[in-house]
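User: Quick sanity check before I run a bigger batch. Here is a single chain. Can you write out its predicted 3D structure?
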Amino acid sequence: MRYFVTLNGRESSLSLETSPSGAQHLAAFGTDSGASGRELRGEMLRPRQPGRPALVCVDGRVFRVAFEGPTPGATAKSQRVRINGAACQLELETELERRARPAPNPSRAAGTRITAPMPGRIVKVNVRAGDVVLAGAALLSVEAMKMENELQAPRAGRVTSVLVQVGATVDADQELIVITPEPSA
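Assistant: Done. Predicted structure follows.
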């Protein structure tokens, strides 16, 4: 099952699978602008129990995850947790819940959002934040089903965000680039 986890404001996608032996395995991919896009592999060593933290092994490192309860005044999905003793803010949502939520930042929604047409891997990024592009300019290429798909700017403007890098794995409808219109001179 696919989830989206926001930990202290940084979002990642997370796949959780249960093996035939009952062991839970996870794979996490960074999806925000500061994430590397590199896949992390992990395993649930011990689920949380009353009075005891969960133990999770990610890329060979063991983390103690203690849930402290809901965050006052925040969404029902927002939890306060401690990871190896450090206080963190955690939000967890399913793929369906994520698609149904409103745009988190109305000012960002004003720009044109370029999204992945299908799951795939980023093979080229032709622009950087701050670049001015014309309508039809090649922005990036996504490899999916052994075909390279070039995504083009639907309108002229300034690239305000590039949210992926070469080699990143992306999901369908994942936001990749934001372009805002240039003010008239």
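Residues 104-180 form a domain with the OB fold (Dihydrolipoamide Acetyltransferase, E2P) fold (CATH 2.40.50.100).

User: Great, the batch can go ahead then.
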